[in-house]
Write a structure and sequence with these properties.
heterodimer, A: mainly alpha, two-stranded antiparallel sheet, 12 helices, elongated, B: mainly alpha, MetI-like fold
Amino acid sequence: MTAERGPSAAGAAAGLIAIVLAALLAPLLARSRPWFETARGEAVLSAPVPWDPDAIDLDQRLRPPGSRHWLGTDELGRDVLSRLLHGGRVSVGAGALACAVALLAGSLLGAVAGLAGGRTDRGVLFVLEVVQSVPALVLVAALAAFLPPSFFLAALLIGLTAWTDSARIVRAEARRFRSAPFVEAARAAGAPRARLLFRHVLPHALPPALATAPYVLGAAVLTEAGLSFLGLGTPPPAASWGRSLADARDVVTTAPWCVLPPAVALVLLVLSARRLGDALAERSRIRSS
Amino acid sequence: MLAYALRRLLSALATLFGVLTLVFFLLAAAPGDPAVLAARSSGTRPASPEAVAAFRRLHGLDRPLPVQFATWAARAVRLDLGRSFQDGREVRERLAAALPATVYLNGCALLLALLAAVPCGVSAARRPGGRFDRVTGAVFDLLFATPSFVLGLLLLLVFSVKLRVTPLFSDPALGPLGIALPVATLGLGAVALLSRFVRACVRTALEDPAALAARARGESGRASVRRALRRSAGALSALAAVLVPSLVTGSVLVERLFSWPGAGRLLADGVFARDVPVVLGLTLVAGGVVVVASVAGDLASAWFDPRLRDAGLLEGRP
């Protein structure tokens, strides 16, 4: 839909890379321990954001942005910028993990269904329909309530709700190649089904599904943020954007500066993921026509 | 049409039963023992073994899992969702108390979204690449990427904190201002989705050779838009399957954000209290709403555009 506006793939990719880099480098960028110190423990070069994300300082509660805390502090005196950087690790990490799980599960199930056809195909389609019928956030929240709060479990659960689209795409592609001459030839030569699947069908069916990875990433990030906002997902005190926003809601009258950083970061991440997805879709459309 | 409708309804019933099964067994497979968790949630101390056993007996958790499932499913089919672990009230009763607020909220949001999205989408489609199209396109792209609770929080920041025109916590009892922010939050999200879709549909319809022929015959712009809208009605109805899940998710988050006393908050509260019947029931209701919306969308599509049905495009969602 955004095709003729020409989404700038480079800009989107740059935004995505910047956020991922900031998340990866957060433990270096934002920490109270200096980068270099003398033998006597004097800081020679401190980190750009010299605050630990979880360091509570009750004397510095709800300070507005200033030279000490660039983006201010929250209701426990924690540095907002430091929590923003570290919170990105949860959003980006959970998003990427969920995306990987979803693509893996989706393309395997889709390829098996498309290649096998018949009852297997109908079974997979039924499960797909069922999973798609429950909104991801509702399903994940319902399950997360009865599981120990954990980053990995949350990411896994999100991935297991997000595999349906890639499964549909891979299934459709696999059906196309099911009776292609080279698959028929391999089958006639006695290739086992696993070989047909991994060697002959998946390599052809996978690229269109991989092109949707940015969309899946964006959706997974949104679900994770919603989950954290509800207070599930990654347990405290770890910073995450969704939880920071839930905390900011409680102090919105006294500390409005707590709202914008995680909000902007979240929108930026999702927007650049979607833009990249648009650009990839556009490119594959041009190639196939 | 009738045969198709029956087939679609049957497949929807199967899907609904699948949802029921999936939700029940996933919750049953989760490691935490709901009896221990729920018995403890009423007090801070761990519950005594006797209390846990009594709780199990009370809610039938001591019976084998298949029996539990059969009992629960048989009741759920009769719309009896069991009793809440928290206060012993019937889930149906609690749901009936909360649902009107949610329906009211979503109804207002949807109405607002339709009123805004159709004119926006149509104007954008009439001059693709024009200034209006580019501006609204950029704004809606941004809105579309903004999670509902972030949007709501930003609106709250502007209207309740800076301008002080709306209350900090929304309540249907407070009149139009009390509901303005949650409605705007859900509505703006829906506008972004709807308007992009209307634009794409109308644009395709306007580029159709039939539209060109009509224009050559001297059809006015207004008439051709009306015709384009009518022609894309089939495609537009299919949107229900996308819009409704996003509204359900939005309701859960937005109701929590604004402390709106609806079904979404009931679900979130149930999740925190480890209240299995409430969580099961509401997840089922959420799934049911989505399935119903998708059936309604498919049937409307088939009604408006039989080609879609005959080409087998409506069996599952694309």
